Amino acid sequence: MNKKLSLFGLIGITMAFFGTVRSVPTLASTGWAQIFYMLIAACCFALPIALISAELSTGWPEEGGPQVWVRNAFGEKWGFVTSWLLWVQMFFGMVMVASTVGVLLGYVIDRPDLGHNNLFIFIMILISYWGITLLNLKFDMVKIAGDWGAVIGVYIPFVALVILGMMYMAKHGINQESYLGHFEASKLLPDFSDLGSLPTLTGIIFIFAGVEISSVHANNIDNPKRNYPIAVIASVLLLVVFNLAAGLSVADSVPAGKMELANITQPFVIMTQDLGIPAIFNNIISLMILVGVLVQLSAWVLGPSKSMIKVAEEGNLPPFFQKRNAKGIPIVFVMIQAIVISLVSFLYVVVPDISAAFLIITITTTILYCVVYLLISLSAIKLRYSMPTVKRPFRLGSKGNGLMWFVSILAIVSVIVTILVSLIPPTSVPQSGHIAYIIFQVAATVIMIGIALFIYKRKKPEWKKTDR
């Protein structure tokens, strides 16, 4: 009999999914408005999606998650589109994650100037991702790295950043030259007249992307009806508090207009220099975060591809995609994603501003995630009516469908608003590039969905793998 997760155990697992210092500069760049952005992202995006996913995962607990839910609601085609989008979003997401490798390595070797070199960033993305990919073909890198990768690369740097921020603020108060500047109540709200600042909301929402993952544990907790919503709400609130503590610390230390979104070491350097802490601290902390980034890349190399090969073996993709190596690794998917990630990373060569390229790729990833969340939310409503008798250990509302409608509509509206805001060119994109930016985001989304629909339309019965 499987041991049940405790309430605190589930909170810990949920926190582990989203613990990262990479998104802190994006959050901090909004100044005091980050409080508003985080509350909106948590209450209108993370919580609704997490609660909807909890009901769906307890009602349809089989492996596959979102793909299974959407398939049961809208059929095989949209189930395939869902699994496809969850795979292809990593093409952009992993480029964004890997882009920090070059910046961090520059600090490790005392060459921070390399973090501003687009060609170096591009080369380091290629070396790090292909290196991790090839290692994963031979070894189980996630098992080798274990939990220590998250401790070294996420938790320790996160705590260090907050402590340094508190020391810095205790010494100076609120830095008038920083992103916080002189406090005014009006600064707690975004400047809605500056439309170019609004896409940053997308980058902040990306902090919670993948929130549905923890729902797989909803069936493995005592009294899920009571404990799962408590765990989700507690986890999201803790993430809000921790991210704001770090975000406000960074916003108080970095001079206004100087934030480097792909450079998490920047605030460490500013604060340690001011506080008289030896510079070797920054080399060490950069190395620790670099370890965390490489461990995260390693986890993503095989995870989505293992899900996709199951979809392929169900007959949604030709036999060519169903090939595995001697260790059972879906070699074709692993190689395709490495090639496409290499092509997407070329954006760092053609976009001069590294922070702009970082934000553009973050936004693209979030848009693709939002399409999946739209399908999940619609599926939750549909399944309430098409399969009302399915037992749901966790259910939104004891009776009736009112609460499900409220939570789902909140999620749907939030997702649609996020997509629309994402199409507004950020301030970092020059006026001359606005049209190109919109075309890139729309084309990336339409093409990725279109490829999935095209493949499904061409599927053949003989594609389905049969046991010999």
UniProtKB/TrEMBL annotation:
Organism of derivation: Enterococcus caccae ATCC BAA-1240
GO molecular function: transmembrane transporter activity
Topology of the protein relative to the lipid bilayer: Multi-pass membrane protein
Keyword terms of this UniProt record: Cell membrane, Membrane, Transmembrane, Transmembrane helix, Transport
Localization per record: Cell membrane
Name assigned to this protein: Amino acid permease
Pfam families per record: AA_permease_2
Transmembrane segments: 33-52, 84-107, 119-137, 149-170, 198-218, 230-251, 280-302, 331-351, 357-381, 402-423, 435-456
Gene Ontology CC annotation, any one: plasma membrane
Domain of life (superkingdom): Bacteria
